[in-house]
Inverse folding.
């Protein structure tokens, strides 16, 4: 129960609060990733249209900033463009916060070049690594240094800044290590700046979220990525859904505080998210999950199955079916001991009421 | 007496030319500055023109660019400014008056003076961090259990207003002191000579006479506060808000429509909020380029509000000036 009037009096700032009543306005508080924001905003808008008495707030503090509030119990739902990390899990456990991990959509990191670039037919993760890893700084400056058949032209790189989840995922998927990136590229937190940059330079290459590519298809060309099976695949709804666009497609999540589910407005909102999520994600140009995944999400929600499928680490190139069938755990998995990021086989904690 | 020699006349002519040259350079610079401003505002108006409707002011933000409006960020900005004005202006004027009229000049007031001057230059993000530590985490830690939200001020309009209030407080204090200092000592002495106490002198003479200057300081302070984003992001301004803070006395219902009670007089202070600059930033960074027009229109509204605020204050100031006759 939020005693809003007590809060004012205690703070000693509002002396006339005696007129206030001790009611709790039905509020659903979401915060977190700016990548997930458009989806959360769309769902919140629809939900408030259907439930006039509920207030839904969506913040945009970034995945890390959102989790900081979430593990303190400040928010009901945390939007995340990566799974919850070991440190955040420990913090949550310390504060007695339990969470339900719900994948809600895909984001396909898209490698783009200028419309005038005709030679780049496909690119492998090895090529990307050659261009982007930290050793390339100041050395790999021309296209033909990456592949001999590419032209002897200066290569101009555009990408997000190191605070972004997109940067983290890309460096891990392409360069093999989170944060392993050269520093001498044009970095911007505003993806529209990257769009403009690549569209003005014939020999530029950049990467950002799929939605920004879709909105700017007239100015940019997406480059097919050679996947694990050796096929060059263009990012697109079908390729992302069936998992062939790998390893640059990643799932997006919301994390729901289990305790918040006792509030009817939060439970209804989370359910609404799972039923309307696909439609809303598509509307804001993200790739929805297959329908079966949302059904699984709803099951998780109803059973209040807490924990994460990742054990506190990032992972790249994961197929959605594998992700949904994995056991959940609130335990951090020690990568070194396990020799991989595979979570231990503790059975999912069920908390049926 | 002979007339001026040729040499003197040459000198004068040269000086006149230099004078004219300087005036021209000044005029060119003014035109350049104004030209850039006109270009910027013109560009803003052109980008915004498609979205300038009443519905833009009365709609909530939306994922659909054509339906999106600025009702909640606009009201948020106004309410935060209200709290900021109610704290910074009285506190700043009182502090400035005290420092000029009452405080003895010693090392302590010297330190305070230096600090106020320095505070005016502190980057705004630092104020945000301080507010986060003090109003949100600090109050919660000192008065309650972590996370229980009973004692911290939370991420609310109240916190935002107080933060911006502190941010602009030094500006108000400095402006107050400057304009009090401009009042001739003779005015005070005349007042004392008539038997007025210090309080009466301040109330009837010092404050009214310095008010035009103080008002200018307040305008500058509020104009700075209205465009601030960094400290508000730090203390947790939201990005999507599609409701207004509760109007005192309005009926509050739960999810099923059952009446829960009535909103108290000050409940709106504890509401979550967003402000215009944050909404603009949100729109500018969207993939869908149609949102750019919305951002421009929101910018135009923000500009208009600032100009209106300034205009009202200037009119008030001129009126007050007319009443002062020494």
């Amino acid at each position: 129960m939020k005693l809003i009037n007590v809060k004012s009096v205690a703070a000693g700032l509002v002396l006339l609060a005696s007129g206030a009543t001790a009611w709790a306005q039905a509020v659903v508080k979401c915060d977190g990733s700016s990548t997930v924001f458009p989806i959360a905003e769309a769902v919140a808008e629809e939900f408030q249209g259907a439930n006039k008495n509920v207030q839904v707030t969506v913040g945009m503090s970034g995945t890390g900033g959102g989790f900081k509030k979430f593990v303190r119990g400040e928010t009901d739902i945390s939007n995340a463009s990566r799974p919850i990390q070991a440190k955040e899990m420990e913090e949550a456990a310390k504060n007695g916060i339990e969470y339900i991990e719900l994948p809600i959509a895909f984001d396909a990191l898209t490698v783009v070049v200028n419309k005038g670039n005709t030679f780049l037919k496909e690119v492998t993760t090895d090529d990307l690594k050659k261009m982007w890893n930290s050793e390339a700084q100041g050395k790999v400056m021309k296209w033909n240094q990456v592949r001999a058949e590419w032209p002897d032209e200066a290569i101009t790189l555009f990408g997000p800044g190191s605070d972004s989840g997109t940067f983290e995922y890309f460096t891990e998927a392409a360069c093999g290590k989170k944060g392993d990136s050269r520093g001498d590229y044009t970095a911007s937190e505003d993806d529209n700046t990257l769009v403009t940059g690549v569209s003005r330079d014939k020999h530029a290459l950049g990467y950002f979220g799929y939605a920004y590519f879709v909105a700017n298809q007239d100015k940019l060309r997406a480059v097919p990525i050679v996947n694990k099976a050796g096929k060059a695949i263009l990012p697109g709804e079908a390729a992302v859904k069936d998992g062939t666009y790998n390893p640059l497609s990643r799932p997006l999540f919301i994390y729901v505080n289990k305790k918040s589910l006792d509030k009817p407005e939060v439970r209804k909102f989370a359910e609404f998210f799972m039923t309307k999520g696909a439609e809303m994600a598509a509307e804001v140009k993200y790739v929805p999950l297959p329908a079966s995944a949302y059904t699984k999400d709803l099951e998780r929600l109803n059973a209040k199955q807490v924990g994460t499928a990742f054990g506190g680490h990032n992972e790249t190139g994961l197929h959605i079916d594998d992700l949904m069938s994995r056991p959940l755990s609130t335990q951090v998995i020690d990568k070194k001991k396990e020799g991989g990021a595979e979570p231990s086989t503790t059975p999912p904690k069920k908390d049926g009421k | 007496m002979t007339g001026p020699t040729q040499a003197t006349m040459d000198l004068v002519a040269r000086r006149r030319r230099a004078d004219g040259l300087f005036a021209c350079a000044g005029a060119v610079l003014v035109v350049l500055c104004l030209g850039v401003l006109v270009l910027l505002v013109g560009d803003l108006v052109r980008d915004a023109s498609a979205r300038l409707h009443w519905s833009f002011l009365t709609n909530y933000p939306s994922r659909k660019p054509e339906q999106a409006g600025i009702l909640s960020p606009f009201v948020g900005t106004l309410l935060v400014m209200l709290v900021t004005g109610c704290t910074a202006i009285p506190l700043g004027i009182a502090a400035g008056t005290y420092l000029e009229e009452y405080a003895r000049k010693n090392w302590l007031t010297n330190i305070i003076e230096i600090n106020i001057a320095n505070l005016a230059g502190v980057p705004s993000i630092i104020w945000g961090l301080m507010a986060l530590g003090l109003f949100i985490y600090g109050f919660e830690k000192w008065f309650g259990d972590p996370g229980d939200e009973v004692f911290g001020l939370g991420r609310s309009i109240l916190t935002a207003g107080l933060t911006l209030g502190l941010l602009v407080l030094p500006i108000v204090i400095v402006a107050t002191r400057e304009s009090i200092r401009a009042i001739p000592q003779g005015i005070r002495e005349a007042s004392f000579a008539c038997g007025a106490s210090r309080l009466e002198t301040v109330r009837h003479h010092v404050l009214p006479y310095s008010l035009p200057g103080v008002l200018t300081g307040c305008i500058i302070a509020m104009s700075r506060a209205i465009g601030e984003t960094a400290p508000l992001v730090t203390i947790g301004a939201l990005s999507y808000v599609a409701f207004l803070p509760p109007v005192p006395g309005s009926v509050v219902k739960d999810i099923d429509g059952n009446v829960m009670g009535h909103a108290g007089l000050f409940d709106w202070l504890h509401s979550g909020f967003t402000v215009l600059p944050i909404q603009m930033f949100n729109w500018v960074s969207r993939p869908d380029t149609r949102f750019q027009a919305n951002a421009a229109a929101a910018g135009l509204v923000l500009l208009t509000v600032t100009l209106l605020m300034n205009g009202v204050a200037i009119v008030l100031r001129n009126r007050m000036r007319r009443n002062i006759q020494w």
In short: Chain B touches chain A through 53 residues (CB under 8 Å). The mean pLDDT of chain B is 88.
